[in-house]
Write a structure and sequence with these properties.
The protein has about 325 residues and is an alpha/beta fold. Helix content is about 40%, strand content about 15%. Helix 4 packs across helix 6 and helix 10 runs antiparallel to helix 13.
Length: about 325
């Protein structure tokens, strides 16, 4: 199914922060954040077993349990299994404050089915609409990523393709932070995905490769892209991180240049980021993450801001967006 038809609106909710990403989030704060998203009208929730070793899925499952299941869409991911045994997560990992359960990587057919069953239990539901194959890319596996991709091709891809054809799920694809695995999957005659969750690669700060290498193919095939991390791990909106690590000087300089133009036109950086991502016809939705209720209202306000055409012209003239990037209003 085409993602734009399946997804209920262009603004969704990325739940990675609810896995205690970078900090120990109190349970009541996590639940209040999901409630704020629901009360705002958000009906698409993306999650994954990896987020806090199942913690994000458990929190989403609890928060949505009292909502009519037909009224919202869930996507989760496969490729990581959460075991009952525990392990020391050490210091410095982005989910070091999550559950202590051991996480193992497995993209086989059997593991894919088990992962979905486990997710359904944590999510307190009998189905999910979309399943992404998680992180089959170099940033997760280094030089071994092509072997991981091949394992997923033989296992997860074929399994999800069958589940989609059987009506068990409505769509599947890759959930990745890099464009290369998307290119590789699009080259295959079969199986055929429905779209992709691409995190961090179609933002104001980093979009050249996605724009040139995957967006045209996705559009031509009638597929769709869900943009994760539209604020580039927070760097675009004044945070210290880019790609889950301290932002390098060139990124901070680019942010400062964009912000100077945004301030001159009286718009927020969140508005600039969301409107830019959504202007590409291949994009079906954006899913900024949130761990505080107030962030939801900020995202909605940013989406409703009127961004003047002169802002986009100034960005283009300053060389801060790719010359071929679609901009709002057809600029």
């Amino acid at each position: 199914m085409a993602l734009k038809k399946l997804l209920p609106g262009e603004l969704g909710f990325g739940t990675a922060p609810l896995g205690n990403m970078f900090r120990d989030i109190p349970e009541e704060e996590a639940q209040a954040t999901v409630d704020a998203a629901w009360n705002d009208g958000i009906r698409y929730y993306d999650t994954a077993p990896l987020y806090g070793a199942g913690l994000a899925e458990l929190r989403i499952g609890e928060a949505l349990a009292r909502r009519p299941r037909r009224d919202y869409v869930i996507s989760t991911k496969v490729g990581r299994l959460i075991l009952d045994e525990v392990e020391d997560k050490g210091e410095g990992g982005i989910f070091q404050h999550g559950r202590p359960n051991r996480v193992v990587n497995d993209y086989s057919a059997d593991a894919t089915l088990r992962s979905i069953d486990d997710s359904l239990r944590r999510l307190n539901t009998d189905h999910v609409e979309i399943v992404w194959v998680h992180d089959v890319a170099q940033d997760a596996y280094g030089d071994e990523w092509l072997g991981i991709f091949e394992s997923a091709r033989k296992g997860a891809f074929k399994t999800l393709d069958r589940l989609r054809d059987e009506g068990v799920i409505k769509a599947w694809g890759l959930g990745v932070n890099r464009v290369e695995p998307i290119e590789l999957l699009l080259e295959l005659e079969e199986p055929q995905p429905d779209g992709f969750l691409l995190a961090g690669r179609y933002t104001l700060l980093d979009h050249d490769r996605a724009l040139q290498r995957v967006m045209p193919q996705v559009s031509a095939r009638g597929l769709g892209i869900v943009v994760g991390g539209p604020y580039s791990s927070g760097a675009l909106v004044g945070g210290p991180n880019f790609e889950y690590a301290p932002a390098p000087r060139e990124i901070l300089d680019k942010v400062a240049r964009i912000k100077e133009i945004a301030d001159r036109h009286g718009i927020s950086m969140k508005a600039a980021g969301l409107h830019f991502s959504l202007a590409n016809p291949a994009v079906a939705a954006v899913i900024p993450g949130a761990s505080r209720p107030g962030r939801i209202a900020e995202d909605r306000a940013a989406l409703q801001e009127t961004v003047p055409a002169d802002f986009w012209r100034d960005l283009r003239q300053a060389g801060l967006v790719h010359p071929d990037a679609p901009l709002p209003g057809g600029i």
